[in-house]
Amino acid sequence: MATTITIPTLGRRARWLAVATAATAILLAASALSFGPRPSLAADATKPDHMISVTGTGRVILAPDVADLRLGVSVQRSTVRAARADAAKAMTAVIAALKKVGLADADIQTSAITLQPQYDYSNGNAPRLIGYQFSNGLTATVRKLDVLGDAIDDALAAGATSLDGGMFRRDDDTKA
């Protein structure tokens, strides 16, 4: 007696579905290892297991031993020549006062010179030139802080019209 088994052939759509299912199963099996548990910290196998790391910040505070002053003379005159001459005369007196308290020539330097025209805008008319303002600034390094007050007072008394500020610093901070 003969037995016949009939196996129906899959349709086109069913074959593609079977191939897609098989491919998905293969991909899941291959990637299953990457979904497993992992250590919380990655470690480099070439480095030792135990390591000490130290980070620090240092701070050094030094008392200043030098002061830099910015002094200026500003005059307004009717001509450039008169403004420049009077500013130079006043600045010469300021420099002499600084030298008198012990500042060296090398510690006194001109830092700025400006000349600005001055106009009268009153009466609603066009501006009218009335003169010139000449300003001369210098920087003075005071190396003996005990004469700093005298340097400021004497410079202002000699004709300085501005003290634009001062900065305290350490002359040589390499030891720090």
Structure description:
The protein is an alpha+beta fold. 30% of the residues lie in helices and 27% in strands. The protein contains three helices and four strands. It has a four-stranded antiparallel beta sheet. Strand 2 and strand 3 (128-142) form a beta hairpin. Helix 2 packs antiparallel against helix 3 (148-158). The longest helix has 21 residues, at 80-100. The chain is elongated, with a radius of gyration of 43 Å. The relative contact order is 0.20.
Strand order, main sheet: write it out. Answer: 2-3-1-4
Largest sheet: 4 strands, antiparallel
Tell me, briefly, the overall form: elongated
Roughly what percent helix? Answer: 25-40%
Number of contiguous helices: 3
N- and C-termini, Cα separation: 111 Å
